[in-house]
Design goal:
single chain; about 180 residues; alpha+beta; Aminopeptidase; 5 helices; 7 strands; about 35% strand; globular
């Protein structure tokens, strides 16, 4: 398996939008109202939406590719803290998804390493994320990656409010490893 991780570019917007919507749907559709899922997907995913996010100078999309095909992605937001929570130089890991067919094959671990490196290169001291309290697989992965529970935040999916765990990881730029690609 040849795995590579790179930053998304504007021409990636359409493929990323489709992949992101698919992985979100696969992860949450069984546990949520179909109308709420449809509302969320249309509000958050689309070529125009992902293109704007890719072009955001305070964000970074990382794409994990296996044999040239998209296997996972992560979306980081720099200088962004959860509402009402003080964090030292925060970087939000706003989205982190690996396609089901790549679960358990090292893609998520490599992508997380790239996220930590990217957050450090961007000047972050704290990497944080929100994860649905009912997503045991993701919570377990984030704990193994070194994240600690730090509170609770709300997430709106369509018309429904859900509780997410707030998890944080202290960053050490000295130990972050080599950059995976120049910016």
């Amino acid at each position: 398996m040849t795995l590579s991780i790179r930053r998304a570019q504007p021409p990636d917007a359409a493929a990323l939008a489709g992949f992101a919507a698919r992985t979100f749907f696969e992860t949450y559709a069984d546990a949520n109202d179909p109308a709420d899922m449809a509302d969320h997907l249309s509000a958050k995913y689309g070529e125009t939406i992902q293109d704007a996010e890719i072009r955001n100078p305070l964000a970074s999309y990382l794409l994990a590719e296996v044999e040239g095909g998209l296997a996972g992605y992560a979306y980081l937001l720099f200088e962004h803290a959860p509402e009402g929570v003080a964090l030292d130089r925060p970087v939000e890991l706003a989205r982190f998804y690996v396609a089901r067919e790549w679960h358990g094959r090292g893609v998520a671990q490599a992508l997380m390493t790239a996220c930590v490196n990217e957050a450090c290169r961007g000047g972050g001291n704290t990497l944080w994320l929100a994860v649905w309290q009912e997503n045991a697989r993701a919570i377990s992965f984030y704990r193994r990656a070194g994240f600690d529970l730090a509170g609770t935040v709300k997430f709106k999916l369509g018309s429904q409010w859900q509780n997410d765990h707030l998890m944080t990881l202290a960053l050490d730029p000295v130990e972050a490893g080599e950059p995976f690609a120049p910016r």
